Amino acid sequence: GRIRHYRWEVKYEYKSPDCYKKLVIAINGRTPGPTIEAEQNDTVMVELKNSLLTENVAIHWHGIRQIGTPWFDGTEGVTQCPILPGDTFVYKFVVDRPGTYLYHAHYGMQREAGLYGLIRVALPPGVSEPFQYNYDRSIILNDWYHKSTHEQATGLSSLDFSWVGEPQATDRQLDRSLSALSFQIEGHNMTVVETDGHYVEPFVVKNLFIYSGETYSVLITANQDPSRNYWAVTNVVSRSSTTPNGLAIFNYYPNHPRRSPPTVPPAGPVWNDGDSRLAQSLAIRARQGYIHPPPQTSDRVIVMLNTQNKINGHVRWSVNKVSYNLPHTPYLIALKHKLGHVFDQTPPPNGYDFVNYDISIKQENVSATSSNSIYRLEFNSIVDVILQNANTMEANKSETHPWHLHGHDFWVMGYGKGKFDMYSDPQKYNLVDPIMKNTVAVQPYGWTAMRFRADNPGVWAFHCHIESHFYMGMGVVFEEGIDNVGELPTSIMGCGDTRGGTFHRP
Ligand code: C2O
Ligand code: CU
After folding, report:
1. Which of 57, 253, 419, 493 sees the fewest Cβ atoms within 10 Å?
2. Rounded to whole angstroms, how far apart are CA atoms 38 and 325?
3. What is the pTM (predicted TM-score) of this model?
4. For position 176, what pLDDT does the model report?
5. Ligand 1 touching residue 104 (CB < 6 A)
6. Would the CB of 176 count as within 6 Å of ligand 1?
């Protein structure tokens, strides 16, 4: 492969993408940032200059597994120290699989401020996709808030809790943030052919449901009346929301691209129609000829109960009643250099009280604890994770959470409603042609089961991709094969107990 060299300057700038002027974080003056274009097996090198003046930064390459380069995953507190103002950090990694991926800030809540973009990895010459098309276009769907990221973050972590609320706009640009979205193009069906870098057995939808951190490829045939344009619409689902629909024009040449369609934009599906969303998830299978059969059994099962809790009066999200917080010294460095004192060494819980916990009701006791402890996985073992959703702290309310795993793709083994049953539900797993993904949603009051092989030496975050939920503790970290991790670059060090290139041991 070739080297694709990018030079980026990250900086605050005033922008008004929806006619409301606010500070955004731009890369080389743009938000979304520049698209990284590469071919399979190329090396991407991004020289990142932090010109934020008063803020640190780190960028994660979402969907890129970082095989052999776990230190360039870009997860502040997990794989690297933050990049200080004025500093330049060089990320260098191989894009080993074709597909469309994302990159975004992984520090505080900077993603929300506009620090994200696309990574497009093309097939090598002479190899073709199992479908045909004439043109391709990439679209990023995102939420857009008028409040500054700092104001939002402060609201979320204050005793006088203030929720980020509903986004003021959903920009026309795959979903990245708070909302589950529906995307449709007036008068045109879409054939889903790929998701998260894996081919899908094609299926047709009128609207595509998409969750933060997911990517999809769809085929659209331009076979409608060419004398007009059509609406492309995104709208918020899974929450009752006042966010205006995101609108764009699907242009038929030679109409002017800004000529409004003569129709009223189509209304999206009703926000609380969870069954259609589940139906789409169930329709997704690996494409014939491209199936990676899953291991038929697993070595370990971890059940993760997703709940909203209170800790010392603060609203938090937790997994098995433990709300996650990041350590000051990144795990990757701590584990490799045996700085065991920098994080809590007690393993987090493997499950919750299945017998007594009623997931369908608001709990009497909403307290939880917080910790930065991690799951240590046996290298090369097969791990099942069951995401179990539950009621929040409000009666009759459960939210959708899209979970993203760093460093791996996992098989989506199954989905279900209600409480996962350890004995009967695994019998219904798809052991034949499950899709592999890096992000999957767990629906309100439901469960999602996934399986992966712990074969990528490193330390990897697994978290809800709603930025404010992760910020409020909805995540965990896995370690595997730390002894097989090569020598760490010193560029990732400098914070916590790794200051000045020396390791501080108590
Ligand atoms: Cu795209 Cu840790 O996330
Ligand atoms: Cu969430």
Report:
1. 253
2. 35
3. 0.95
4. 36
5. yes
6. no
